[in-house]
Design a protein that fits this description.
CATH class of the domain at 2-7 and 78-239: Alpha Beta
Order of helices and strands: EHHEEEEHHEHHEHHEHH
Strand content: 5-15%
Number of strands: 8
CATH topology of the domain at 2-7 and 78-239: Rossmann fold
CATH architecture of the domain at 2-7 and 78-239: 3-Layer(aba) Sandwich
Shape: globular
Helix content: 40-55%
Number of helices: 10
CATH superfamily of the domain at 2-7 and 78-239: SGNH hydrolase
Distance between the termini: 35 Å
Radius of gyration: 17 Å
Structural class: alpha/beta
Length: 253
Protein backbone atom coordinates (compact mmCIF):
# COMPACT_ATOMS: atom_id res chain seq x y z
CA UNK A 1 0.00 0.00 0.00
CA UNK A 2 1.58 3.25 -1.18
CA UNK A 3 0.54 6.48 0.57
CA UNK A 4 0.94 9.96 -0.92
CA UNK A 5 0.56 12.98 1.37
CA UNK A 6 -0.79 16.04 -0.50
CA UNK A 7 -1.13 19.45 1.10
CA UNK A 8 -0.17 23.03 1.71
CA UNK A 9 2.03 24.63 4.38
CA UNK A 10 0.38 22.64 7.17
CA UNK A 11 1.52 19.44 5.47
CA UNK A 12 4.93 20.34 4.11
CA UNK A 13 5.98 21.96 7.39
CA UNK A 14 8.84 24.37 7.93
CA UNK A 15 12.45 23.76 8.94
CA UNK A 16 12.51 22.43 12.50
CA UNK A 17 9.04 20.82 12.43
CA UNK A 18 8.19 17.19 13.02
CA UNK A 19 5.12 17.50 10.65
CA UNK A 20 1.95 15.44 10.79
CA UNK A 21 3.50 13.34 8.04
CA UNK A 22 6.10 12.20 10.56
CA UNK A 23 3.33 11.34 13.04
CA UNK A 24 1.54 9.37 10.33
CA UNK A 25 4.74 7.48 9.51
CA UNK A 26 5.06 6.51 13.18
CA UNK A 27 1.44 5.33 13.14
CA UNK A 28 1.94 3.24 10.01
CA UNK A 29 5.09 1.71 11.47
CA UNK A 30 3.16 0.73 14.59
CA UNK A 31 -0.02 -0.55 12.95
CA UNK A 32 0.97 -1.78 9.48
CA UNK A 33 4.63 -2.50 9.92
CA UNK A 34 7.71 -2.31 7.77
CA UNK A 35 7.15 -3.86 4.38
CA UNK A 36 3.38 -3.43 4.54
CA UNK A 37 3.33 0.10 3.20
CA UNK A 38 5.41 2.78 1.50
CA UNK A 39 5.27 6.57 1.55
CA UNK A 40 5.72 8.02 -1.93
CA UNK A 41 5.91 11.38 -3.68
CA UNK A 42 8.18 13.68 -5.70
CA UNK A 43 9.36 15.87 -2.80
CA UNK A 44 11.04 15.17 0.54
CA UNK A 45 11.88 18.53 2.09
CA UNK A 46 10.47 21.01 4.56
CA UNK A 47 9.79 24.61 3.59
CA UNK A 48 12.93 26.74 3.55
CA UNK A 49 12.26 30.47 3.81
CA UNK A 50 15.46 31.56 2.07
CA UNK A 51 14.82 29.56 -1.07
CA UNK A 52 11.01 29.70 -0.79
CA UNK A 53 10.87 25.99 -1.62
CA UNK A 54 10.42 22.64 0.18
CA UNK A 55 14.14 21.87 0.24
CA UNK A 56 15.11 21.92 3.94
CA UNK A 57 16.21 18.64 5.52
CA UNK A 58 16.07 20.02 9.09
CA UNK A 59 13.34 17.78 10.48
CA UNK A 60 12.91 17.87 14.27
CA UNK A 61 13.52 14.13 14.28
CA UNK A 62 16.74 13.49 12.34
CA UNK A 63 16.00 9.75 12.41
CA UNK A 64 12.90 10.28 10.23
CA UNK A 65 13.85 7.97 7.32
CA UNK A 66 14.49 9.60 3.98
CA UNK A 67 12.08 7.23 2.23
CA UNK A 68 9.28 8.20 4.64
CA UNK A 69 9.77 11.94 4.05
CA UNK A 70 8.26 11.82 0.56
CA UNK A 71 5.23 13.97 -0.19
CA UNK A 72 3.52 16.35 -2.60
CA UNK A 73 3.04 19.47 -0.51
CA UNK A 74 4.04 23.09 -0.83
CA UNK A 75 3.94 26.32 1.14
CA UNK A 76 1.18 28.46 -0.32
CA UNK A 77 -0.10 25.72 -2.66
CA UNK A 78 -3.72 24.60 -2.81
CA UNK A 79 -6.20 22.63 -4.90
CA UNK A 80 -5.55 25.17 -7.66
CA UNK A 81 -1.90 24.13 -7.82
CA UNK A 82 -2.22 20.42 -7.12
CA UNK A 83 -5.01 19.55 -9.56
CA UNK A 84 -2.75 20.05 -12.63
CA UNK A 85 0.12 17.96 -11.20
CA UNK A 86 -1.57 15.11 -9.32
CA UNK A 87 -1.97 12.84 -12.36
CA UNK A 88 1.76 12.85 -13.01
CA UNK A 89 2.57 12.41 -9.31
CA UNK A 90 0.27 9.40 -8.97
CA UNK A 91 1.51 7.84 -12.20
CA UNK A 92 5.16 8.28 -11.24
CA UNK A 93 4.78 7.10 -7.65
CA UNK A 94 2.19 4.36 -8.07
CA UNK A 95 0.24 5.83 -5.15
CA UNK A 96 -2.69 3.74 -3.91
CA UNK A 97 -3.99 6.09 -1.19
CA UNK A 98 -3.96 9.90 -1.21
CA UNK A 99 -4.17 11.73 2.13
CA UNK A 100 -5.12 15.28 1.17
CA UNK A 101 -5.22 18.45 3.27
CA UNK A 102 -5.98 21.44 1.04
CA UNK A 103 -8.38 24.36 0.76
CA UNK A 104 -7.46 27.01 3.30
CA UNK A 105 -4.93 28.79 1.10
CA UNK A 106 -7.28 28.58 -1.90
CA UNK A 107 -10.12 30.28 -0.05
CA UNK A 108 -7.78 32.84 1.46
CA UNK A 109 -6.15 34.03 -1.74
CA UNK A 110 -6.97 32.25 -4.97
CA UNK A 111 -10.53 31.03 -5.52
CA UNK A 112 -14.03 31.25 -4.07
CA UNK A 113 -15.92 28.27 -2.62
CA UNK A 114 -17.37 27.05 -5.89
CA UNK A 115 -14.12 27.38 -7.83
CA UNK A 116 -12.19 25.66 -5.04
CA UNK A 117 -14.68 22.79 -5.01
CA UNK A 118 -14.42 22.53 -8.80
CA UNK A 119 -10.63 22.25 -8.49
CA UNK A 120 -11.04 19.53 -5.87
CA UNK A 121 -13.26 17.59 -8.26
CA UNK A 122 -10.72 18.06 -11.07
CA UNK A 123 -8.02 16.77 -8.72
CA UNK A 124 -9.97 13.57 -8.05
CA UNK A 125 -10.61 12.98 -11.75
CA UNK A 126 -6.94 13.55 -12.59
CA UNK A 127 -5.74 11.19 -9.86
CA UNK A 128 -8.03 8.49 -11.23
CA UNK A 129 -6.69 9.00 -14.72
CA UNK A 130 -3.36 7.74 -13.39
CA UNK A 131 -4.84 5.06 -11.10
CA UNK A 132 -8.53 4.17 -11.58
CA UNK A 133 -8.50 2.37 -8.20
CA UNK A 134 -6.89 5.10 -6.13
CA UNK A 135 -8.40 5.74 -2.70
CA UNK A 136 -8.66 9.30 -1.36
CA UNK A 137 -9.10 10.71 2.13
CA UNK A 138 -9.87 14.44 2.14
CA UNK A 139 -9.52 16.62 5.23
CA UNK A 140 -11.99 19.52 5.50
CA UNK A 141 -10.66 23.01 6.08
CA UNK A 142 -9.88 23.05 9.79
CA UNK A 143 -10.11 25.90 12.35
CA UNK A 144 -7.72 28.78 11.69
CA UNK A 145 -7.01 32.23 13.06
CA UNK A 146 -8.58 34.17 10.19
CA UNK A 147 -11.86 32.28 10.49
CA UNK A 148 -11.92 33.10 14.20
CA UNK A 149 -11.93 36.85 13.57
CA UNK A 150 -13.41 37.14 10.05
CA UNK A 151 -17.03 35.97 9.96
CA UNK A 152 -17.39 36.05 6.14
CA UNK A 153 -14.22 33.96 5.79
CA UNK A 154 -15.49 31.51 8.41
CA UNK A 155 -18.71 31.20 6.40
CA UNK A 156 -16.65 30.61 3.26
CA UNK A 157 -14.74 27.79 4.97
CA UNK A 158 -17.98 26.21 6.16
CA UNK A 159 -19.54 26.54 2.70
CA UNK A 160 -16.52 24.93 1.05
CA UNK A 161 -16.55 22.05 3.53
CA UNK A 162 -20.16 21.31 2.57
CA UNK A 163 -19.22 21.41 -1.11
CA UNK A 164 -16.25 19.13 -0.46
CA UNK A 165 -18.49 16.65 1.34
CA UNK A 166 -20.85 16.73 -1.63
CA UNK A 167 -17.98 16.15 -4.05
CA UNK A 168 -16.84 13.15 -2.02
CA UNK A 169 -20.36 11.73 -2.04
CA UNK A 170 -20.84 12.37 -5.76
CA UNK A 171 -17.50 11.01 -6.93
CA UNK A 172 -16.90 8.09 -4.59
CA UNK A 173 -17.13 4.70 -6.28
CA UNK A 174 -16.58 1.14 -5.05
CA UNK A 175 -13.41 0.91 -7.13
CA UNK A 176 -12.09 4.34 -6.10
CA UNK A 177 -13.66 5.49 -2.84
CA UNK A 178 -13.44 9.10 -1.70
CA UNK A 179 -13.66 9.57 2.05
CA UNK A 180 -14.14 12.81 3.96
CA UNK A 181 -12.14 12.69 7.20
CA UNK A 182 -13.59 14.13 10.35
CA UNK A 183 -12.42 17.42 11.82
CA UNK A 184 -9.44 16.78 14.11
CA UNK A 185 -10.88 15.97 17.51
CA UNK A 186 -10.33 18.69 20.10
CA UNK A 187 -8.29 20.88 17.73
CA UNK A 188 -7.65 24.28 19.35
CA UNK A 189 -5.77 26.91 17.36
CA UNK A 190 -4.53 28.50 20.60
CA UNK A 191 -2.73 25.38 21.82
CA UNK A 192 -2.35 23.16 18.74
CA UNK A 193 -0.74 25.72 16.38
CA UNK A 194 2.21 28.08 16.65
CA UNK A 195 0.57 30.98 14.84
CA UNK A 196 -3.14 30.23 14.67
CA UNK A 197 -2.80 28.22 11.45
CA UNK A 198 0.25 25.95 11.33
CA UNK A 199 0.26 22.94 13.66
CA UNK A 200 2.69 22.53 16.52
CA UNK A 201 3.48 19.09 17.96
CA UNK A 202 0.05 18.47 19.52
CA UNK A 203 -1.68 19.74 16.37
CA UNK A 204 0.43 17.42 14.22
CA UNK A 205 -0.78 14.47 16.26
CA UNK A 206 -4.40 15.54 15.88
CA UNK A 207 -4.11 15.95 12.11
CA UNK A 208 -2.48 12.54 11.77
CA UNK A 209 -5.21 11.07 13.98
CA UNK A 210 -7.95 12.45 11.72
CA UNK A 211 -6.47 10.60 8.74
CA UNK A 212 -5.50 7.45 10.64
CA UNK A 213 -8.89 7.03 12.26
CA UNK A 214 -10.68 7.58 8.94
CA UNK A 215 -8.53 4.89 7.29
CA UNK A 216 -9.19 2.47 10.11
CA UNK A 217 -12.94 3.04 10.37
CA UNK A 218 -13.68 3.03 6.65
CA UNK A 219 -11.23 0.50 5.25
CA UNK A 220 -9.68 -1.28 8.25
CA UNK A 221 -6.26 0.11 7.31
CA UNK A 222 -3.88 0.41 10.22
CA UNK A 223 -5.54 0.86 13.58
CA UNK A 224 -6.85 3.56 15.93
CA UNK A 225 -4.38 6.40 16.30
CA UNK A 226 -2.19 6.49 19.38
CA UNK A 227 0.66 9.00 19.57
CA UNK A 228 4.05 7.34 19.63
CA UNK A 229 4.68 9.25 22.85
CA UNK A 230 1.70 10.49 24.85
CA UNK A 231 4.09 12.46 27.05
CA UNK A 232 5.56 14.18 24.00
CA UNK A 233 2.08 15.17 22.81
CA UNK A 234 1.31 16.75 26.17
CA UNK A 235 4.65 18.57 26.30
CA UNK A 236 4.17 19.75 22.73
CA UNK A 237 0.76 21.23 23.49
CA UNK A 238 2.18 23.09 26.48
CA UNK A 239 5.14 24.39 24.48
CA UNK A 240 3.26 25.85 21.52
CA UNK A 241 3.30 29.66 21.84
CA UNK A 242 0.13 31.57 21.04
CA UNK A 243 1.57 35.07 20.98
CA UNK A 244 4.71 36.80 19.82
CA UNK A 245 5.35 34.32 17.03
CA UNK A 246 6.78 35.65 13.78
CA UNK A 247 5.36 33.32 11.06
CA UNK A 248 7.43 32.12 8.16
CA UNK A 249 6.58 34.48 5.29
CA UNK A 250 3.66 33.32 3.14
CA UNK A 251 0.40 34.92 2.08
CA UNK A 252 -1.05 35.87 5.48
CA UNK A 253 -4.45 34.45 6.28
Amino acid sequence: MRFLFVGDSMTVGRAGDFTWRHRMWQHLEATVGEGGYAIVGPRTGLYDAESDAPVSTAYADPSFPAAARRHLAGWGEGWLHMAPVIEEAVAASGADVLLVSLGLIDLGFYTDCEQTAANARAFIVAARTANPQVKLVLLPVIPNVRAESDAPFAASCARFNRLLAQAAADLSTPASPVLLAGHPSGYDIHTDTYDGTHPGPSGEHKLAAAFADALHRAWSLGGPYTPASEAEAVRGAAAVPTAGVVPVPEPAL
